[in-house]
Amino acid sequence: MLTRPGPPSPTARPARPRVLPCPLAARARVSNSAGSPGAQHPTSPTARLPGSRTGRSEPTAYAGTVIPEPVSSPDFLSSAALSAKIRGCLLGGALGDAASGTGASSGTSISAHTQLALYSLDGLLEAIEWANEGVGADETACVWLAYLRWMRGRGLQLPAAGPSPLPRPIDSEPLLQPEGTGDAGAVDPDVLSALATGEMGTRQRPLNTGADTPAALVRSAPFGLLPYVETETVYKLALDAASLTHGHPAARHCAAVFASTVHGLLAPGATLRTAAGEALDRARENAAPDFTDRLQAALADDAAGTADRPSRASGTATAPADDDAAVIPDRMPTAEEALTIGLRAALAVEDTALEVAARKQPASADDDAADLAAATAAAIRIAAAAGGAPAAVVTGSLLGTRFAALPDADLEALRERTMIEKLAAGFIAATIAP
User: Fold this and answer.
1) pLDDT of 319-360, one tens digit each?
2) How far apart, in whole angstroms, are the C-alpha atoms of residue 306 and residue 281?
3) Among 69, 220, 377, 381, which residue's CB has the most CB atoms within a 10 Å radius?
4) Where is the composition biased (Polar residues) (predicted)?
5) Is residue 368 part of an annotated ligand binding site?
């Protein structure tokens, strides 16, 4: 049972081991047609609320898995460092989304990509809150209910065959309502078609098996922000959440690799290249060899190109070159294309930053942060030009997690900044020990 986990001290161990919230829960926050809380939707025996014991015939692979305690606290970053990475990931992804051109007269604005990512965070947070109260909850069901709440908030009718989730605080955020954002219309049709069925897709029976658009990818970074758990847990959680709307193997595994890479960056001393490599190894273990081969080949080519070309760092600049991402024609990229473009643009920043750090005199922390923030802004623009908002979301999320250094001017222009910081603070309070 998850009860606000935190890193143990070298001399003290928790009285109970940490386990994930068990998906075989007896409760979930929904209402029936009469609006009474806690009721299951009375449709058919097979359409019972997934949060109930009868809603899933089999537990997920991570149900009730005991997570071994590490031998000492150095296995974890400090609470302050973890908090900075969580904020950096969410805000970096939002900047990538806003870089695609979505905006309003008062500044830049996020689209449905980031809205659904924030609802992914809130669904995961609801499962954690249940666990902190001593009640198991189905994480994927909580995320599904969160997506239904997002759908309702856009003024769309919920499916008659599905549950009616009770509202949560995020639902009242004005900037997440259609009239509060500069992008009221652009929503991936695969997302809407899946949610409109009223059915909860699973890894075993995913919805939209032909959908390989990047909508599941760009909402998956929050699953990687869950600290103190095994990366395999994160991988499977992201697979499950992607299966709610996107059943194509590449779309699901791209989402899981993205989340796992973010999670890998929460470890002390982790690099983006190492975290991405480990995430791809995990994809191979999860029966996605062809997908893994293609991404590993792309990253290998990128690494070779970085080693072969002359240094482009001048002084302290660490911005990637425009040739770090191949341009996709004027169409929506696939999930695999968006992940590849976004990851390569982010890796270019890290590679050059490490190169610069190895050969220059020590600089102040403020100077380094400013250089990385400028490089992050440039990488986001390059990814957006090559692969649109989905690729830019990947780049911004990864660099925000890796360096937690984001451009001040772009943050000031982001209309949803305060709201995202508030949601991040709530997640941090529930998951990270003070």
Assistant:
1) 565 555 556 657 889 999 999 999 999 999 999 999 888 876
2) 22
3) 220
4) 30-46
5) no
Q: Is 238 helix (H, G, I), strand (E, B) or coil?
A: helix
For β-strands 66-67 and 30-31, DSSP reports them as unpaired
Contact between 123 and 142 under an 8 Å Cβ cutoff? The reply is yes
Instruction: Give the predicted TM-score (pTM) of the model.
Output: 0.82
Averaged pLDDT, 37-63? 33
CA distance 97 to 82: 23
Type of residue at 95: L
Average pLDDT of span 207-217: 96
Domains of the chain in sequence order: 23-32+77-431 (1.10.4080.10)
* 3-class SS string, 239-293: HHHHCCCCCCHHHHHHHHHHHHHHHHCCCCCCCHHHHHHHHHHHHHHCCCHHHHH
Placement of tokens 């305690």 in the chain: 69
Those residues with Cβ within 8 angstroms of residue 96's Cβ, 6 or more apart along the chain or in another chain:
342, 380, 383, 384, 389, 391, 392, 393, 394, 395, 396, 397
Number of helices (H), then strands (E), belonging to the chain: the values are: 13, 6
Rg (alpha carbons) of the chain, rounded to whole number = 21
C-alpha distances in angstroms, 403 versus 217, 344, 368, 390? Answer: 21, 16, 10, 20
In whole angstroms, what is the distance from residue 394 CA to residue 292 CA? 17
DSSP conformation letters of 135-183: ----HHHHHHHHHHHHHHHTTPPPPTTS-EEPP-GGGG-GGGSGGGSS-
Contact status, residue 111 vs residue 428, Cβ threshold 8 Å: no
User: Alpha helices, DSSP H only, in 56-111?
Assistant: 79-98
How far, in whole angstroms, is CA 68 from its chain's centroid? Answer: 24
Q: For residue 99, what is the DSSP state? A: T
Supply 225's token pair.
């922000």
Residue 295 contacts residue 302 (beta carbons within 8 Å)? no
CB of 318 closer than 8 Å to CB of 371: yes
**Alpha carbons 419 and 174: distance in angstroms, whole number:** 9
371: left (phi over 0), alpha (psi -120 to 50) or beta: alpha
Kind plus residue range of the DSSP H or E element containing 108: strand 107-108
- For the segment 256-267, what is each residue's pLDDT rounded down to a tens digit? 999 999 999 999
The tokens for 408 are: 């001040």
* Strand, coil or helix: 367: helix
Give the amino acid at 12: A
Looking at the DSSP assignment, which residues form a beta bridge with residue 414?
A: 108
Task: Tell me which of 279 and 10 has the higher pLDDT.
Answer: 279
Q: Which two tokens stand for residue 377?
A: 């802004």
